[in-house]
Amino acid sequence: MTGTPYVKNGDDLTAQDVYGIWRIRDIVFAVEQQCDEPDVDGLDLISTTTHLWFADDLGPTSYLRTYVGADGVRKVGRVATRREHRGRGLSSALLRAVHERWGDEEIRLGAQAYLEQWYASFGYERCGENFMEAGILHVPMRRVGTAG
Hints:
Domain N-acetyltransferase: 8-146
Organism: Aeromicrobium camelliae
CATH class: Alpha Beta
GO molecular function: acyltransferase activity, transferring groups other than amino-acyl groups
Shape: globular
CATH superfamily: Gcn5-related N-acetyltransferase (GNAT)
Largest sheet: 8 strands, mixed
Keywords: Transferase
Mean pLDDT: 94
Strand content: 25-35%
CATH topology: Aminopeptidase
Radius of gyration: 15 Å
Structural class: alpha+beta
Protein name: GNAT family N-acetyltransferase
């Protein structure tokens, strides 16, 4: 059972929220995956970025953020789950929460290549050529909105 995720816009985050979010992303992206680009990109604290996460006493256990890019299309990114919480469906639950809120819109993401089929199971399709980001091979993907 995953429960209800925390959902906060960037301008509503507390210092403790920001610390926890940056901590999980640091552990997963910088330490485990050895990403070679900075994680903090100026998007986290703005009002149009929404952060979703589950947490325990040590902070976020699984996390993602979503925002509308300069192109007007919703993006999902920074999906991260602490190692000891993987395999419990937490990231899936967060992605479903995004679809519940914004599923009528097109949603795009840059999936790490090894996760292409996982994202495809949620209705995402490849929409371009592979690319390198932070030293990791990614696949551009999109999910067509249900509005029409």
